[in-house]
Description:
Blueprint (H helix, E strand, L loop, with lengths): L3 H20 L3 H15 L5 H26 L8 H26 L5 H22 L3 H21 L3 H72 L1 H19 L5 H32 L7 E4 H18 L3 E4 L5 E4 L1 H17 L5 E9 L2 E8 L33 H11 L4 E6 L3 E9 L13 H27 L5 E4 L5 E4 L11
Parallel strand pairs: 2-4
Antiparallel strand pairs: 1-3, 4-5, 5-7, 6-7, 8-9
Amino acid sequence: xxxxxxxxxxxxxxxxxxxxxxxxxxxxxxxxxxxxxxxxxxxxxxxxxxxxxxxxxxxxxxxxxxxxxxxxxxxxxxxxxxxxxxxxxxxxxxxxxxxxxxxxxxxxxxxxxxxxxxxxxxxxxxxxxxxxxxxxxxxxxxxxxxxxxxxxxxxxxxxxxxxxxxxxxxxxxxxxxxxxxxxxxxxxxxxxxxxxxxxxxxxxxxxxxxxxxxxxxxxxxxxxxxxxxxxxxxxxxxxxxxxxxxxxxxxxxxxxxxxxxxxxxxxxxxxxxxxxxxxxxxxxxxxxxxxxxxxxxxxxxxxxxxxxxxxxxxxxxxxxxxxxxxxxxxxxxxxxxxxxxxxxxxxxxxxxxxxxxxxxxxxxxxxxxxxxxxxxxxxxxxxxxxxxxxxxxxxxxxxxxxxxxxxxxxxxxxxxxxxxxxxxxxxxxxxxxxxxxxxxxxxxxxxxxxxxxxxxxxxxxxxxxxxxxxxxxxxxxxxxxxxxxxxxxxxxxxxxxxxxxxxxxxxxxxx
Length: 511
């Protein structure tokens, strides 16, 4: 921020620059008026005086305009303000005196018309100079004093009462012009001051913006470094948790008292919760750091669905829920590891927020691709929150932040991985009825010469799917027999309805 003296010099320099910029606009009109007056007022007695006056006015205007243009070619520096002001005062004093000499050359008591013309021209010239010279008040005052002073002096020395009255009127007019010129100068100064204030504010804003940008960049770099560190150290961080689980498993096989078994169960629960949270945070940090890359290969979906079912169906059984997987023979073109992580988060989320009923996982063809769907008959999600749930650490129905319900990162991780795969992840939900998440993936291209479902490879794949389906149906019957009676109707892809359990139905996840 500039000091007040420095600001004052800048303002005066700008006032001088504004005044000099006005000089050129008055040159041609002044020359035209001077030549016209010589033509109109010339008499045998005053021709020489008028011509000398005209030459003086034109020379004064030409030099002042040339000098202003010369000075404006270079920047007007603040330290030059006082010198420029003095220079302008001198030049405009000469110009004012030159114009004032018209009263001595053209004011004729024998010709009223000529006298009126002279007075009118001088009054008009000094009035017009207000808009040109008032930015620098001393310059305007000097011009007025020299021009109107000459007129008042000439009128007073003519000896006639009327001209002496005119002399007094000119002095009153001079005082009025100086007052108006002061107001105009203040207005110009205020406008210049405002412009400098705005420039200073803009400069400060740029500085603060740059500071904020640098701070944001530093924060982003720190966050990225943190994420990259966690991503790089994820294996090392997971090992102690994995080892802890192994030690607890070994301890569980030893002879323990009932009290020790209870303590071991609590330790296992705490270990599983901490492992789950750590794995979630590490997965999120890897995505946030941008170190996750997709490795696109063709893969069969069914083994992946069976793996997720074997891992998560026991959790559903423990909550009295029915878990079903619709068998699929489709071969997808994507990254199986990332697809598995997406589905595991979606299914875990469905199990966590479903109180009764069940979960259905299936896949269907759609257009030229496939859509994997995860249905649940859970609490549902209002339309206003269906985008917010994909934000990190956002949870529904967990105001107490119970860590048994996770960290609120599962759907954020799923959305981040889906973006890496360039696979749309969508949600449809109705509060109180349930939700369905859909992940769209491309189908693997068929081998050259492949026709329909024929061939030994296709028959073998179908047989494997059928065998896996039979095994899962046996497991499902065992779970169904062990689970509490809770009716569930889930519409499978293709339109058929399967029921599990007995009693009244809890309602489909969605219809």
